[in-house]
Amino acid sequence: MELARSSDALVTGMGSGKLFGNASGVTILDRIVCDGAQVTRPSIDPYREPIETGVCIGGRLRLSAPFAVSELWKMKTVIKRAAVVAAFSMNIVAYLGKDEVTDAERPFLPNLLLDYGQQFSEHAAGIVVNSKERNSVRVDTDSKTQGPLFLIRMPSVDDPTAYVSSALMGFDAIIIDEDYDGLTDIEIAVSEADTALRKYKLNGRPLRDRVSIMAFSSRIRGADDVFKLMGLGADCVGLSQAATIALGNVSDLNEAVFCFENLILSLQRELKLLAGAAGVSNIFTTVVGNRELFRCIGLEKRIMQKLRIKPGGA
Amino acid sequence: MTKIGLNCRLTDNLGQRTKRKNNSSITFRSGYIQIRNTTNNFWNVSRIEHIRHLAQTGRAVKPLETPLTHERLLDRLSFTSFNMPLEDCDADVDLAVSLAYGSIKLAAPIYFGDMSFGALSGIPNIALAKAADLTETLAGTGEGGLHPEVRKCKRITVQWASARFGVDLSTLSAGMAVVIKIGQGAKPGIGGHLPSTKVTDIISATRKIPVGTHALSPAPHHDIYSIEDLEQRIWALKEATGKPVFVKVGATNYVAYVACGIARMGADGMILDGFGAGTGASPLVVKDNVGLPIEVALPVVDEALRRECLRDGFSVIAGGRVSCSADAAKLILLGADAVVLGTAALIAMGCIACGMCHTGKCPALLTNAAAYTTHETLSLDWATSRLVNFVKGFSEGLKILVSGLGFKSVKDIVGRKDLLKFNEALTYSKKGVGY
Ligand code: SF4
């Protein structure tokens, strides 16, 4: 990933080499293409016109871009620490898991997600309850207007009823994590959760309005995957492996922070390019759950139905 | 064969073989740089070798047996009935087509993709225009003004794109048609981009922009925000130049409606550019994710135009990864009047699909930064003759295919989707991901 060095979107010559073929490693996301706006719905010039990438999670956590850094506990210490700093400076979130918050990391709490029961969690951006420990946790749904968010981390599964019941329990956001013993592809789980939560009405309003969806997976490689997962219904997408790969062998903390910030900036720029091409000026309000902006190339009908994305040409 | 030999500038990415020669001018017998692999999955060695063969011999090679791989939907389409013509069918198949309500006649349904002077370094632009003249086809000249030598050629179209680089009335009237460029297949919704390293003195003069700045065309036309706006531009350009007007768009979700709009608003044709089409410089993330493959968009466009009774006389030129005559034949069956050869034409001129076009350091001297004086330039005669041969070989292949399908004229197979079948066997892999 050259993105970490340049802070700008990668530009290259000649046509795309991407084939929607059967090569190994081709994912569902690879078979989704984005729209380009033309004539009647003019595109927006991402180099000259403003495009809003900010998102709002759980009604009160505002981020400058729909990114989260997840699986920090799997990273090298220096990268982990850089992620925490960069999350704060770029105003995204980092999920620290069960790891201790060190003194040095304490100033960055407003951009950290911590597991339930950890020290300082009352000052963090959000408190994460892991679904396997759900029974031992009582969620206080009354303190909805301030304080840290309550999030529940669940594996990616086919059946969205579990997501619906979590939302009914009052969680502000659901983290669907493919690497948390997920049983199905993150694309399908996110889409099904989004669909089910939109269908379920509470006091006449869709349940989806009260709960955010975050998608975590180590398979997410870049802005394109983030953009597509947002189209399927995610409000925020977690990167882990991609960041580790991008930073490579960096050993100096300052350099790592610098690279991390560049990475986030370039991903944000790329997101803006995709949004601009599709004629979207605000990603959060226009892309999340907007499957019309996407088409599938060479996906099986069964999967297309779950994703609710039309085949190319339709 | 005419002059063979490509005075090649040595760059790092040519590999061992050229480095050893230590910066002297090298000449390969074929004129082509030898390659073992490419960085591009689609333009692989076998596709490149195929094109080179056509360009060297001017004869078709097994048009029915190409392409050799099955990655695209297009590759999985095959002809329902095909009888290999026994003898040379050159004489009795007519490839001539007429475009834009009969105002442009082509000897073969081939359009060289719109590549600008700036993206290409000058000689290739001239070679493309000359080859179009010699083969009676048509060459697009892209955005950004005309090279004086290109201006002398007849069979060119002039582009009116969002930045209006180098546009004036004499330029607009210089070709056989004007192309309003709304979008391109490599990056629908994103404007043209000529990187700063390639904006040299001569480009600065033709584009009328400062040397060494990025030439970033706006994504939308700032005076075309609706179909009605488009109509005004189409008619204004027609009035001003007296030439037919084409509209070039990328293949996107709603392209069928856009196509109907274009036809209804009085354009004479459209250039439909699909996923994977070439570009001089484009953000990777957009290139790899935005737009539909041509084989998906084209039949929908053709059908919509027919349903609205707008297809007669209106031309649809389809492009995006046309690599062999079989691709062309299939696209014509899917509803194209002519096909675009862009990257394929570059490959005929020696491109090795290295994807370095944006750097201005093209090892094949095609997309290098244009300058008044350079020591090494592509030989114009060589490039032109390669292109002419390529068109000949390509056309011969197309003739064989048309004849094998049982027709005498390529015009008769336009839109005959019934002559194609989809090979389901290659459709899905176990996980449901796949074709
Ligand atoms: S035109 Fe030149 S730089 Fe571009 S891919 Fe071909 S050989 Fe490489």
Automatic annotation (TrEMBL), chain A:
GO terms for biological process: glutamate biosynthetic process. Residues 186-249 form the Glutamate synthase domain. It comes from the Archaea. InterPro entries: Aldolase_TIM, Glu_synthdom. One of its GO terms (molecular function) is glutamate synthase activity. Gene3D superfamilies: Aldolase class I (3.20.20.70). Belongs to the glutamate synthase family. This is Glutamate synthase domain-containing protein.
